[in-house]
Amino acid sequence: MEKNQVHKLIIIGSGPAGYTAAIYAARAALNPLVIEGKNPGGQLMGTSYVENWPGDKRVLGPELMVRMKEHAQSLGTTFMAHDIVKVNFSKRPFTLWTNRDKELKCHAVIIATGATSKRLCVPGEDDYWGKGVTTCAVCDGAFYKDKDVIIVGGGDTAMEDASFMTKYTNKITIIQVMEKLTASAAMQERVLNNKDIKILYNSTITAMYGDGKHVTQVTIKDTKTGKETKKSTDAVFVAIGLNPNTQIFKGHIALDKYGYVDVKNHTHTSVEGVFVAGDAADYRYRQAITSAGTGCMAALDAERYLSEQK
């Protein structure tokens, strides 16, 4: 990489959105540079099998991400195993700084930094993450037909997960730390009227256990009495929210009150020439395929923008 080089396009992030953006940008001769970040491959690196990716009946999440990276690489994408820690979008070309004191300049940026699932941070959670403990019932629910499953949370996401799981099992338990649900009335009604869903209020999981390969049991604590009980389970879906990985962009582009990038015209941000794709802006769908789709859109928009600058 040449000193003082000004890149046409830098993509920040390396999940499905970032890799797809790189594939499209590379094919458009934009010679994209992908800054991979702390967790190359994104959230799918922590999953097991993916069964809803078109064209693959069943594929391991990490394997899918390796293939996507290789695809982008084969078309001429350059990768940098750094993390962006500071940006300046007020002056053109844009300037980005990495955690290894590298200064980068570019004419256009695609933000594809994704989001990080909030975790319970209890013993055993990290050991069984991706081994029955996950955040996506839509992604993994079909693996648990007629199995005991636990949903942690009381908001809309938890209610959606619980309702979704009724397609596969009638053994569903919601663990809610508060004395009532916080989801919208309509979402609550769907769950409260379903006899297959049991709700434990004023409760929290304090530990997770397994056989080394998969989660098998959790400890549930009553927050009022302090009493702890053990419960067998085949899956734990943690649905307590996501944090978009957008902190470094605060003050440089418009973010909403939750920290998600404020999007206009599909992929455009509040700064011309800075685009966004994937979970950094998407708080609704949060699927690998939708992230990839917006990665494609962002790359096409960046290509159009750069061609107009000429």
SSE arrangement:
Elements: E1 6-12, H1 16-27, E2 33-35, E3 49-50, E4 59-60, H2 61-74, E5 78-80, E6 84-88, E7 94-98, E8 103-111, E9 115-117, E10 133-134, H3 137-140, E11 149-152, H4 156-165, E12 172-175, H5 185-192, E13 197-200, E14 203-210, E15 215-222, E16 228-232, E17 235-238, E18 242-244, E19 274-276, H6 288-309
Parallel strand pairs: 1-2, 1-8, 2-5, 8-19, 10-17, 11-12, 11-17, 12-13
Antiparallel strand pairs: 3-4, 6-7, 7-8, 9-18, 14-15, 15-16
Helix pairs in contact: 1-2, 1-6, 4-5
Give an account of the 3D structure:
This protein is α/β, with parallel strands linked by helices. It folds into two domains: 6-117 and 242-309, 3-Layer(bba) Sandwich (FAD/NAD(P)-binding domain); 133-238, FAD/NAD(P)-binding domain, CATH 3.50.50.60. 23% of the residues lie in helices and 27% in strands. The protein is built from six helices and 19 strands. It has helices at 16-27, 61-74, 137-140, 156-165, 185-192, 288-309, and strands at residues 6-12, 33-35, 49-50, 59-60, 78-80, 84-88, 94-98, 103-111, 115-117, 133-134, 149-152, 172-175, 197-200, 203-210, 215-222, 228-232, 235-238, 242-244, 274-276. Strands 1, 2, 5, 6, 7, 8 and 19 form a seven-stranded mixed beta sheet that branches. The chain has a five-stranded parallel beta sheet with strand order 10-17-11-12-13, covered by helices on one side. The chain has a three-stranded antiparallel beta sheet with strand order 14-15-16, with no helix packed on it. Strand 11, helix 4 and strand 12 form a beta-alpha-beta unit. The longest helix has 22 residues, at 288-309. The two termini are 23 Å apart. The model has no long low-confidence stretch (mean pLDDT 94).
